[in-house]
Design brief:
Aminopeptidase, 24% helix, 4-stranded antiparallel beta sheet, alpha+beta, single chain, globular, 94 residues, 2 helices
Length: 94
């Protein structure tokens, strides 16, 4: 990893709660990506970009390549009821 990229401690767990007095409470957990999350992340990316010309495959390959090159500074998943439902990743730009 590039020495100029600031390092951070792993995010163990961050719980985000949305509150609407008229709706049930939903708890979404944000945590660092784990190796076993790769397939679920791919499904989330493909679903998010399904309307695009390549149906999310281009975006999925970008994330897979950045992960393989150890070029993701941050890669978090959103989890609800033990299922990965979201993903966000950051990588340095040069």
């Amino acid at each position: 990893m590039d020495a100029r990229v600031p390092q951070r401690a792993p995010l163990d767990r961050l719980i985000v709660v949305w509150f609407d007095p008229n709706a049930p409470v939903e708890v979404v957990t944000l945590r660092d990506e784990r190796p076993r999350d790769a397939d679920a992340i791919a499904r989330v990316i493909v679903a998010a970009f399904a309307a695009e010309p390549q149906h999310g495959q281009f975006e999925r390959r970008i994330v897979d390549t950045l992960r393989a090159d150890d070029a993701l500074s941050v890669s978090l998943v959103a989890e609800r009821d033990g299922r990965v439902i979201g993903h966000v990743a950051f990588s340095p730009v040069s």
